Amino acid sequence: MSRPIVTFYDRPGLFMPTVEQGSLIQELRAVAAASFCMDTSQLPNYQCLAIDDPFALSDKLIAVGRAPSTGCIIGFISSVLVQIPDFSEGEVLHVGLACLSPSSKLETVSGLAKHLMASIVYGYLLKNPSTSKVWVTNRSSNLSTLGRFAQTVDEVFPSPSHPISPPTSLHVTIANAIIGSSSRSLNVTPGKLDPRTFIVRKFLFHAGKDEDQRNDRYHYSNPKMWEFYRGYLDENGSKEDESGILQVGHISPRMLYVLRGIMLAKL
What we know:
By secondary structure, this protein is of the alpha+beta class. It is 36% helix and 21% strand.
């Protein structure tokens, strides 16, 4: 498979004509439906998939990967910029929604996911050169997603790098701001956070159709991460309330060189 063409959109709702926004949202919905193994009519009306919100793309950083032969989107990541009052950095980047074509080869999917996330953070850092570090959050129950986040971001809580360390007060402040947000783009239920473990109870939307298959494949490629997050969810969460983990960490500008290397690497 030829290398996908990656495009980064910085809050396209602020500059893109309405018609183009609608076309982009429909393309993203098609990829999401394939990724979640459902019809587009079953998709949640949230995040970059919202069709009734004129500001749906105004706070999003989106990276899309297109097949060079057709120009069709085969994967995307849509992150949300969340404003936090009385926070020195001003805002947090919530990783948000990641959808990848299930028909792509595993190695291509893995490489594309890294490339898309690198494009978002790289683009954000370039546009905010005075930022000392970018605080990033991620809410998921998918073991491969949790593991890749922990491998990419610094000072992540919770993570196997510091398995028994409690979260810092700053981590707790950020987590509370995310879980307390009324934005439906974050896919969290206000007030459903365990401040000790960062376990989140209940999702506004939960797909997980191919979660077991992807997690099994990830188990073979990174057993340490897989075992930590599988055990963490088993010990602190429950399947009955669809528990997930809210991860909090940061990326510093020194990562620009690493991110650029990821973007230039062959998928």
